[in-house]
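A quick aside before the break. I want you to see a complete sequence-to-structure record at least once, exactly as it would be stored in a machine-readable document. Don't worry about memorizing anything.
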Amino acid sequence: MATDSRVDLVFSHNMPRYEATGIDPNDLRALMKRIDRWEDWCRVWSDEGARHEAMAREAAEKEQAVTAAAAFIRASIYYHYGKHLFADHPEEFRAAHESMLRCYSAGATGMDPPLERVEFPYKGVSMPGWLHKPSRNTKPPVAVILPGLDACKEELHAWAQAFVDRGMAALTLDGPGQGETSFHLPTTSEWGPVLGTVIDVLERRADVDGSRVGIVGQSLGAIYAPLAAAGEPRIKACIANCGPYDWGQVLPKMPPISQEVFRVRSHAKTMDEAYALAKKITLDGAAERITCPLLVVFGAGDRLIAPSEGERLAKAAKGPSELVIYEEGNHVCFNISYKFRPLTGDWMARQLMT
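That is the input. The structure line, written in tokens, reads:
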């Protein structure tokens, strides 16, 4: 056990997540032994990120393109988890963020096919996303994937592949209050206009089918996704994986360290102000405007958000809805990613490709 209980708490909640999104289990065990104080969290993770980045650069110098790309992507995930829940240390957070972005950008160009950085104008800033396209489909439909409270678009790399493998393009997006965009725009409840801007851009592209767009979200992104579906009629299908129905009711029950992340990402000066903003993020009055097909996924063992939140959404939506609860699943079902990723990929393919 670590001296600082926050270290043990974060590891206990997130070990399956770390492994499912690209952290080597052996490295993870070593990290758990090395981190004793919360103040050391970002530094130790970033040291591991730098080690994998050095391997990537060595492979690049030897013109081992596949090895280099994989190592850069892996390094980016290590840097990402260095800033995970570390919002109370803004300078270290930002440094780890920049390292994460540097490595992911380097790895993206070496993927086959390469990932494309796409930007979407919204309220005077550009919201960035990574477009993953299948090699065998010349004009694929698009699944837009939204991260959760403490995640970012780069963390969604492995999940995006589940959609690409089934012939769809996947757009991992940092919307307001998320990833890169969080430095410029606060968290919002107005996700219909956000996705409207995204679809406007996709419709103008010749290499994807902007008339067939689905929305996908995990954790807090799994309330943003149905809010988008409620507010943007061009969305053809929606997946919500372990999201709240009413964030204002859920936020005060979250660990204090997560509450602080929301305060920072909502650009609130105090927690009371953050609680007031959270009350605006609700599906009350919105769920009944969801008419497209909806898939709600939950883990019965979720310790952060109760499965009853997903049950409320599936019941309230006016369009066809399906609720899948995995008895052994944890938050976002990261401990059974081999179940939820194929499920969501296959379901979205049926909605957008048949």
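Two observations worth writing down. The chain has 13 helices and eight strands. The chain has a mean pLDDT of 97. We'll return to this after the break.
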